[in-house]
Predict the structure.
Amino acid sequence: MKKYVSLAVLLAFSTPAFAAPSYLTRDGMGGYVVTYDYTDKAKTGWYVGARADLNFWNWTNNYSSGENFLGAVEEYNRDEFSFEPVFGGSAFAGFRFAYFWRAELEAGYLGYFEDADHMAEYNLQIPYAMANLYYDFTNGLYLGVGAGVAMPIETIDMLGYADGSDRTRYGFAPMIGVMLGYSYELDYNLVLDVRYRLSGLTGWHHRIDGLVDMDDNRFWFENEVNFVLDNSISIGLRYEF
């Protein structure tokens, strides 16, 4: 009899196939309870999402007009804009790899700004596209860097003088940024994303020729935009597959 008991114990410890699966537990009456957690399903690493932004722009406009404008000589002026608030947004898609890293493509709109005086009306809007790289910490915080291109659309209306033929110009400006954010998991697939980004883009130049004032004097007008610094605070959602 002892030989049979010893053989049964040996088989129990030496045969893994006889072990109960992890989702099976025993109840108090000697039966089995089957449990399954849906979060056991592994994520693919891919995700998509969108953000709403409050942006604060900082930049300088250097503009000048040619001789004979209302009988005046050529003059140069400078307008400085500091922390001008505008609203924007973005959509993005990315992939998580090596546990803590994320690579992301982002397409967005930094916002729309307008300014006017008795002489002219100035409008500026900035779409952009960036590639981002993030590192996620275990406490939900993350850091990131990004690089891409902004495509500023600048419109200058010389009120009462411009014929509108070339008042709008489309620019191209390299753009870089650094990010600090926080992710909070609302459920297994849906994540709340809060982000601060400090970004900058190079300037551009816009010139309008062939303008005529009320005295039939022909003149030109040009504007040079310096480096644009943007502080962006955003809140968004991302869906992880």
